[in-house]
Amino acid sequence: MPNTPTIQRDTLTPELFLQLYRSVGWEAPGIDQVRTALANTAATFTAMLNDEPVGMVRLIGDGGMSFYIKDFAVVPSSQSQGVGHALLTELERYVRQSIAPGWAVSLELISSQGAIGFYERHGFEARPNKWDGPGMFKMVRA
């Protein structure tokens, strides 16, 4: 039986962020940009397995109507072992505890192609659908 990951909240450092970000093949921003992003993040979640960091996710949002899942990464050797599930479960628990009773908020993300099924299994709906168009993205550079 595989080990169950433990999830740490708000312990993600810029250095660890870059390590996990690069582990999935993403082209990483500079450390100063990461430091600024982390300082303005609602919450971070880091998955630990056998005392080793194996995944992360950031949550950004307004605290009232919308939250956005960003930089969800699980090192390839730990994928399909419950790490992503544990991260998403803890993130959703945090959102529920952060909002007022009776509120409903939008939890949004842009999925990589290979992760669509994972998110659908966790209750996310793909876009486009009959009432919404596709998610949109634009990179702005200084």
Any overview of this molecule?
The chain is of the alpha+beta class and 142 residues long. It has one domain (6-121): Aminopeptidase (3-Layer(aba) Sandwich). It has four helices and five strands, in the order βααβββαβα. Helix 1 (14-23) crosses helix 2 (31-39). The model has no long low-confidence stretch (mean pLDDT 95).
Could you outline the blueprint of secondary structure elements for this entry?
Elements: E1 6-9, H1 14-23, H2 31-39, E2 43-49, E3 52-61, E4 66-74, H3 83-98, E5 106-108, H4 116-121
Parallel strand pairs: 4-5
Antiparallel strand pairs: 1-2, 2-3, 3-4
Protein name: Acetyltransferase
Keywords: Acyltransferase, Transferase
Domain N-acetyltransferase: 7-142
Give me the CATH fold name.
Aminopeptidase
Describe the main β-sheet briefly.
5 strands, mixed
In terms of DSSP E residues, the strand content is: 15-25%
Task: Give the class from helix and strand content and strand pairing.
Answer: alpha+beta
Radius of gyration: 15 Å
**Widest sheet, order of strands:** 1-2-3-4-5
Taken from the alpha-carbon principal axes, the silhouette is: globular
* CATH top level class name: Alpha Beta
Distance between the termini: 49 Å
- How many domain units? 1
CATH superfamily: Gcn5-related N-acetyltransferase (GNAT)
Helix share of residues? 25-40%
Look at the structure and give the mean pLDDT. 95
CATH architecture verdict: 3-Layer(aba) Sandwich
Unreliable spans: none
SS summary, helix count: 4
Order of helices and strands: EHHEEEHEH
Number of strands: 5
